[in-house]
Specification:
The protein has about 450 residues and is of the alpha+beta class. The chain has a domain of about 200 residues: 3-Layer(bba) Sandwich (FAD/NAD(P)-binding domain). The chain contains 11 helices and 19 strands. The chain binds flavin-adenine dinucleotide.
């Protein structure tokens, strides 16, 4: 038996969760159950895999198990960017190998298309999905150099880009803080918690979703037996869609890095405050430096700030850490919006990214009857949706060029053992954040 020695526990203050529709979560499983298909993880990846399995096998029951409530975990805690274009921070033009970049673009677009269609089909209006593009913005020389190089890479890939400079930027994003921004039109922005809640409530009828049900141990054999606090689930085939927690199910051990990043949401701006900043009414900014700040103006006129990282090896939130990062968020916010210094944050939270040292995710078979789409590497809204869907299609014998691409892609690298791992990761995070300068 494999004991799952790290179980999810996120902090209690995810802003998107609390400001979206309160729903009645599906009841936890009490006792035993059994199904040909069991999916673990009620985030973007698991929801997509469960839905597609149910559509591919309409005669079969699919059980989807989520340790917390849907919308409360990382899938409901992100900044809500559904990004199309690739951004390879290891390549000089941030694009690198063109064939690889095209595949990533198509994968992301596939995820975007699935989410857009589901929002329309199930009328998930409170997801506020808007095709608004994104601004990648910079203030430091290093950041400007990134934008110039990335522009060349994107143009070589045939993607539309627009450079916006100086004061002109204020008309777009309500701040003259940045020197330059690269606008790419393909990104969609969403209220991520409302979106995953809506996805959970529109699953096909042959999916049984158990929320607040944590899997604590697994027996692998001809049938797979999953243990939870009040009983067992017997599965014909198991699909792991639980991001970095997948490495505690006996696979890919020490290959993922649960790195947390943090968000804050202000209260809604008053009409006078909105007028004081100007700009468009709905936009999203990502930083040129990976250690910089993400910003959004939301559908309900709040400002979102996301920055700061911590390494939480057990994948759980660290007590008191949100108080610490709120100070950093405040500084970043007031630098960008000096007329809004009286506007308080209503929520500050963190969420775990399933990072890997080489940036590779895992897709495919883990052992007989066990499959996974794991390690979101920070952009799992669209990637998780696409990989969860493609995995379910592969299990139904439907192979596609993107499936072949994912199966052939590099797998996550090994991490060095502790304590060297924590020392190394903490050093990288600390120096990265210090070097980000004003981008943070
Ligand atoms: C602050 C922040 C900002 C971000 N911004 C963006 C962004 O703008 N765009 C973007 O694409 N990505 C962003 N991300 C990353 C994105 O949220 C993740 O890539 C995405 O959530 C991954 O989805 P997933 O379904 O693979 O995994 P998760 O969302 O991590 O879902 C896995 C689920 O598995 C459950 N689980 C784990 N173990 C068990 C168990 N033993 N039993 C039962 N259930 C279990 C967990 O509770 C969890 O809900 C951001 C993340 C954060 C924290």
């Amino acid at each position: 038996m494999v004991r799952v020695d790290a179980l999810p526990r996120d902090d209690s203050s995810p802003g998107w969760f609390h400001t979206s529709r309160m729903r009645q979560p599906k009841a936890p499983l009490i006792g035993d159950d059994k199904a040909p298909w069991v999916v673990i993880g009620g985030g973007f990846t698991g929801l997509a895999a469960a839905r597609q399995l149910a559509l591919n096998f309409p005669q079969d029951r699919v059980i989807l198990v989520e340790a917390q409530q849907v919308g409360f975990g990382t899938s409901g805690r992100n900044a809500g960017f559904l990004i199309d274009v690739p951004h390879d921070i290891g390549a000089p033009d941030y694009i690198g190998d063109k064939t690889n970049a095209k595949n990533i673009l198509h994968l992301n677009q596939r995820g975007q298309g699935i989410l857009r269609d589901l929002v329309e089909q199930h009328n998930i209006v409170d997801a506020h999905l808007r095709h608004s593009g994104k601004y990648q913005a910079a203030i430091e020389d290093k950041g400007i150099a990134v934008l110039n190089a990335y522009r060349g890479g994107l143009e070589a890939l045939g993607e539309k880009v627009e450079l916006i400079e100086g004061n002109e930027l204020k008309d777009h994003i309500g701040t003259s803080f940045y020197r330059k921004a690269l606008y790419t039109p393909g990104t969609m922005l969403v209220q991520p918690s409302a979106l995953v809640k809506g996805l959970a409530d529109s699953l096909p009828e042959n999916v049984t979703l158990y929320e607040d049900t944590v899997i604590t141990a697994v027996d692998y054999g001809q049938q797979i037996v999953l243990h939870h606090p009040t009983g067992r689930i017997t599965a014909g085939k198991l699909i792991l869609g639980n991001n970095h927690f997948g490495q505690h199910f006996g696979f890919l051990e020490n290959r993922m890095l649960p790195i947390f990043t943090y968000g804050s949401l202000t209260r809604p701006l008053t009409p006078a405050e909105q007028a004081s900043i100007g700009g468009q009414e709905f936009w999203g900014v990502i930083p040129a430096d990976p250690f910089g700040s993400t910003l959004r103006r939301t559908h309900d006129n709040r400002i979102l700030v996301r920055n700061s990282f911590s390494f939480n090896p057990d994948g759980r939130s660290k007590d008191g850490y949100t108080d610490k990062v709120r100070v950093a968020h405040r500084l970043s916010f007031e630098r960008r919006f000096p007329t809004l210094t009286d506007v308080p944050f209503e929520h500050t939270w963190g969420g775990g990214l399933g990072m890997t040292r080489n940036g590779a995710g895992f897709f495919g078979e883990l052992r007989e009857n066990v499959y996974g789409a794991l390690a979101c590497n920070g952009l799992g809204t669209v990637r998780g949706t696409a990989t969860g869907t493609l995995l379910a299609n592969m299990l139904a014998g439907k192979m596609e060029p993107l499936t072949e691409f994912l199966l052939a892609a590099p797998k996550p690298n090994w991490n060095p053992p502790q304590p060297a791992l924590s020392i190394g990761v903490n050093f990288t995070l600390r120096t990265g954040q210090a070097k980000a300068g004003l981008e943070a």
